[in-house]
Design brief:
Blueprint: E1 4-9, H1 13-25, E2 31-37, H2 52-55, E3 74-78, E4 82-86, E5 91-94, E6 99-101, E7 104-107, E8 111-113, E9 126-128, H3 132-145, E10 150-154, H4 158-169, E11 173-178, H5 190-202, E12 206-209, E13 213-219, E14 222-227, E15 232-235, E16 237-240, E17 244-246, H6 249-253, E18 264-266, E19 278-280, E20 285-287, E21 290-291, H7 295-309, E22 323-327, E23 330-336, E24 346-352, E25 357-363, E26 370-376, H8 382-385, H9 397-400, E27 418-420, E28 425-426, H10 427-435, H11 441-448, H12 458-467, H13 484-494, H14 499-506, H15 515-526, H16 542-546, E29 549-550, E30 556-558, H17 569-582, E31 585-588, E32 594-599, H18 604-613, E33 626-631, H19 634-637, H20 645-656, E34 665-670, E35 684-689, E36 692-697, E37 709-715, H21 717-734, H22 741-747, H23 751-760, H24 767-780, H25 784-789, H26 792-795, E38 813-815, E39 822-824
Parallel strand pairs: 1-2, 1-7, 2-3, 7-19, 9-16, 10-11, 10-16, 11-12, 18-20, 33-34, 34-35
Antiparallel strand pairs: 4-5, 5-6, 8-17, 13-14, 14-15, 20-21, 22-23, 23-26, 24-25, 25-26, 27-28, 29-30, 30-32, 31-32, 35-36, 36-37, 38-39
Helix pairs in contact: 1-7, 1-24, 10-11, 13-15, 21-23, 21-24
Length: about 850
């Protein structure tokens, strides 16, 4: 097939998202992409425009991968405007006269600032607030006016307050003029607007509400701004931020139909209703007549068009217009039916003028269903409330917006609480070691032996050190000053593929048993090299070194993968024959798999040869990776099941198998709310509902059991997998060494709210990058044991004695006198079940 070309007009956040989505999914490179960017800067975070003030470094706002370096199928033309479109010939002509042909055209022109028809609107000193160039111009005018000069912002909505914040950061004295009777009239009500106005006034803003701007003339400070109430403001700078309009002029010129309020009219697949080869995404798109001015719906349109160009049938899912932001340091959130327009709706309000907080919940007429809400001053409850919109409330509405108490930390544990269960070390012993001078984790380990086995207690030890006033080093070990997350980013950014190169450039010494396995895991997470590749094999710990779990007598266990607990009769027969022929002890695990115990190291390849030939692969019970996806029988068999939980479990296990991570990962998929798969006790829990899937994250068993928490609900299959992709890769990139997902979430600033914003709302703008990383893993997955069996060099590792490869280890013995086969440690009495000794 000949390659087709798509031309993208516009390179803002949504245009960039489209290019990333298309290139990540286009496995066969069927499309080349030409991007026309009117701005000279490649795509940047326009939502975070105010953060440009102060650093004045455009690179800090740059979106990851925005130059497409190394991708020969993307041609980014910066500073190039699309001047005309010939839809009959399917060509775009640029302002330089270049004619570019297309098979598909994606309009991503965004929006433009609306400037009211006010006399004097074009005078020197007036600006709009939209691009980096706009801010550079405002900065020059502010610098010329000097510190404390007055700046006026026309518009008191989201962008208006952002602009006022920017003026304040530039050293100006901001005034905000809003025609509505309150600030942010679309997001907050009168009560919330009053609190917001008081908060921003205390921060140095002067607020003028209920008035318009009548005229702008030249004045002694540069400008005179006349308001509709007759007052006049002498100002050096005026910024229009009175809303935006779809940038659809080029579309109109070429005859594309637009919506009643502007925007390129499209169907639910984001395709123009006028021309089937033209699509529109972001703020310039009027999807079935509606334009959306937020980035999240824009990203959704980009994903839809990418899917459509690759033969899919994705549809725009609608838009959640909930917003949560920080304006001049003030938290503001609005969600659902914030203005109580639903018939019979009731309002529950908690306004604390002394603390400067305002909270309102809108509920149904029986006060049981949450319809919406507004939070000003303290939006910490937003993350837990927004997912409840349209659902029954778990309790009294007023209690949900009352100030929440702090969660007890490690410091509240009693001294006799066992922190390290592996070695029986109490909190009192650890605190005693800290009091005697142990000032880091390594010294606490040396003094108490805590954290030296499984490492699961290390986050608690860190909390105890921190609560004792000890400043913790982020160093991974004595050889690397960086944390695990920082080393991940270094490997990801530099492309370094060996431990020796990494330590030579960023560390010191020769490494240790802490940093070597960590780096090995990072290398495995960022590429698909075999875990026993010569450059990585020496870094692995014992389990990964032999691709099996070592047991107490030096033998190993064998665990074939059984996605969803499924196993064919033929495979089950092979497992039984292997257990019989090699004299292995057989145990059904809690993860719906079969564990075969007692294999000597030289037997492992022989065992796996028979299992691999039977179509089975490594279950990776030895790795810091995905272990199992436990499942009930779901709707296929169970009369209560509402979704195919087995099918989903199989899909998830096959997708994430082999994924190396900071700690082991366990999944559960339940076919209904009865929760037979115990999904809420897993790192990733999926529970079926009539409308789709609920996704729970960061649960685990172990010494500190944690229930998983609801991340998102009512998801279709595609969205569920996309969110899990993002969640897992974000965890892998940012977690500490040997940190399970539950303590990772507990240590995360912003907690579940922040995680939800990153995964579901793409607040960091990295979702596409995370999805691409997961796609790379899925593409590159190879069964580790199959790779060993194909490589004589790797097979040579599996011997008990290097100089006698065919000789068995004589110290390996078993006691089979009882009902169970048990290992015997040479020189020690045999273990007898039920008898202490």
């Amino acid at each position: 097939m000949s390659r087709k070309n798509v031309v993208v007009v516009g390179h803002g956040m949504v245009g960039h998202r489209f290019v990333e989505a298309l290139r990540a999914r286009d496995e066969h490179d069927t499309w080349s992409v030409t991007v026309l960017s009117e701005e000279t800067q490649p795509a940047y975070d326009r939502v975070g425009l105010s953060s440009y003030v102060g650093s004045w470094d455009a690179k800090e706002l740059a979106l990851a991968g925005n130059t497409y370096d190394g991708d020969d199928l993307v041609d980014l033309k910066l500073g190039t405007r699309a001047a005309a479109i010939d839809r009959a010939a399917r060509t775009v002509t640029t302002d330089s006269g270049e004619v570019i042909g297309y098979d598909a055209l994606v309009m991503a022109t965004g929006s433009y600032p609306f400037v009211p028809p006010i006399p004097g609107k074009d005078l020197s000193g007036t600006f709009v607030y939209r691009t980096l160039d706009d801010l550079d111009g405002i900065r020059a005018a502010a610098d010329a006016a000097g510190p404390g000069a007055v700046g006026v912002v026309v518009g008191g909505g989201l962008l208006g307050l952002e602009a006022a914040n920017a003026l304040k950061l530039m050293g100006m004295t901001p005034h905000v003029v809003e025609f509505a009777p309150r600030l942010m009239p679309l997001q907050v009500d009168e009560g919330g607007g009053n609190v917001l106005a008081r908060l921003v006034t205390d921060l140095g803003l002067t607020v003028h509400t209920g008035v318009g701007t009548s005229a702008i003339t030249e004045g002694p400070a540069g400008l005179q701004v006349e308001l509709s109430d007759g007052s006049v403001i002498d100002a050096a700078v005026l910024v229009f931020s009175a809303g935006v309009r779809p940038q659809d002029a080029l579309a109109r010129d070429t005859g594309l139909e637009v919506g009643a309020r502007g925007g390129i009219l499209t169907d639910i697949g984001c395709r123009s209703v006028t021309d089937e080869s033209v699509y529109a995404v972001g703020e310039c798109a009027a999807v079935e007549g509606t334009c959306y001015g937020l980035v999240a719906p824009g990203y959704s349109t980009a994903e839809v068009v990418a899917d459509r160009l690759l033969g899919g049938d994705a549809e725009f899912p609608g838009a959640d217009l909930s917003t949560k932001l920080k304006l001049l340091g003030v938290d503001v959130a609005s969600f659902g039916d914030a203005h109580a327009t639903t018939p019979g709706a009731l309002e529950v309000v908690l306004s604390d003028a002394a603390k400067g907080t305002y909270a309102k919940l809108v509920v149904s007429d029986d006060a049981k269903i949450l319809l919406g809400g507004i939070l000003v001053g303290d939006a910490s409850a937003y993350g837990s409330l927004r997912p409840l919109v349209g659902r029954e409330l778990p309790g009294d509405p007023a209690a949900l917006i009352s100030p929440a108490g702090e969660k007890p930390g490690a410091g509240s544990l009693p001294d006799d609480a066992e922190v390290c269960s592996c070695n029986g070390v109490t909190k009192g012993a650890i605190c005693g070691a800290i009091a005697e001078g142990a000032c880091d984790i390594a010294q606490v380990k040396a003094c108490t032996n805590a954290g030296t086995t499984c490492g699961g207690c290390l986050p608690t030890i860190k909390q105890l050190l921190a609560s004792s006033g000890v400043e913790l080093s982020k160093a991974l070990c004595e050889h690397f000053e960086q944390s695990r997350a920082e080393l991940f980013e270094i490997v990801h950014a530099t492309g370094i593929r060996t431990f020796s190169a990494l330590i030579a450039r960023y560390g010191k010494g020769s490494g240790c048993d802490i940093c070597k396995p960590v780096v090995a895991s990072i290398l495995a997470s960022t590429d698909s090299d075999h875990i026993l590749h010569p450059k990585q094999a020496g870094l692995q710990d014992t389990n990964d070194h032999f691709l099996a779990n070592i047991q107490k007598n030096g033998t190993y266990s064998v665990v074939p993968r059984m996605p969803g607990g499924e196993c064919t009769p033929e495979q089950l027969i092979v497992i039984g024959e292997v257990a019989r022929d090699f004299g292995l002890y057989v145990k059904m695990t809690g993860g719906q798999r079969i564990d075969l115990f007692g294999a000597r190291v030289e037997q492992l390849p022989l065992i796996w040869k028979r299992l691999v030939d039977a179509g089975m692969e490594s279950g990776q019970a030895y790795g810091k990776s995905l272990r199992t996806v436990k499942s009930c029988v779901g709707s296929t068999w169970c009369r209560y099941g509402v979704q195919d939980s087995v099918g989903m479990a199989v899909d998830l296990e096959l997708r994430y198998r082999g994924l190396r991570s900071p700690h082991k990962l366990k999944f559960g998929v339940s076919g209904c709310a009865r929760e037979c798969a115990e999904a809420r006790g897993k790192d990733v829990g999926v529970i079926a509902t009539e409308s789709g899937w609920n996704l729970y994250v960061c649960g685990n068993g172990g010494q500190s059991p944690k229930h998983a928490q609801l991340l998102a609900g009512g998801l279709d299959d595609e969205t569920l997998v996309r969110y899990i992709d993002r969640f897992l890769m974000f965890y892998i990139r940012t977690a500490d060494r040997l940190q399970r997902t539950a303590p990772w979430l507990e240590a995360m600033e912003g907690g579940l709210d922040h995680l939800r914003e990153v995964v579901c709302e793409d607040s960091l703008g990295i979702a596409a990058e995370l999805e691409a990383a997961m796609a790379k893993h899925v593409e590159g997955y190879r069964d580790e044991w199959a790779g060993v069996l194909e490589d004589p060099e790797k097979l040579a590792r599996f011997v008990s004695f290097v100089n006698a490869p065919d000789e068995a280890d004589p110290t390996v013995r078993f006691d089979e006198s009882g009902k169970r086969k048990v290992p015997v440690l040479v020189g020690m009495p045999a273990y007898r079940p039920g008898i202490s000794g």
